[in-house]
Specification:
Helices cover about 0% and strands about 45% of the residues. The chain is built from no helices and 11 strands. The strands form 2 sheets. Strands 2, 4, 5, 6, 9, 10 and 11 form a 7-stranded mixed sheet that branches. It has a 4-stranded antiparallel sheet with strand order 1-3-8-7, with no helix packed on it. The radius of gyration is 13 Å and the shape is globular.
Length: about 130
């Protein structure tokens, strides 16, 4: 059974950094498209970034995080890492990782495309 375990949330000041990890158990991380979403109360769940199973690991970023949140995959730790830099108050949300065995390469992330979900962790950016 595939499970996703997240870590690395918390409180950080504007301009700071956080490292979010999504450990995949019960499967090999390269065999799944891994997506990151965030959700703020009263707003729709927003796609943040995605790394696909394709050989080139097709990575997509939302415009709101492009250049600030590099995404990487560690096949030894079976983990996908979202490095969150230059954080802004508007980045405050609950962040979720999600996984699907298909090679998803189209731009954007749709929550219904992902069958496995992590538990979600709060990220708060505030001074």
């Amino acid at each position: 059974q595939v499970q996703l375990v997240e870590s690395g949330g918390g409180l950080v000041q504007p301009g700071g950094s956080l490292r979010r990890s999504c450990v995949v158990s019960g499967a090999t991380v390269e065999d799944y498209t891994i997506g990151w979403f965030r959700e703020d109360p009263g707003k729709e769940r927003e796609g943040v970034s995605r790394i696909s199973t394709t050989p080139d690991s097709a990575i997509w970023y939302a415009d709101s995080v492009k250049g600030r949140f590099p995404l990487s995959r560690d096949h030894i730790e079976n983990t996908v890492i979202l490095q969150m830099n230059s954080l802004k108050p508007e980045d405050t949300a609950v962040y979720y990782c999600a996984a699907d065995p298909r090679a998803i390469v189209i731009p954007g992330l749709k929550p219904y495309e992902y069958i496995h979900w992590g538990q979600g962790i709060q990220v708060t950016v505030s001074s």
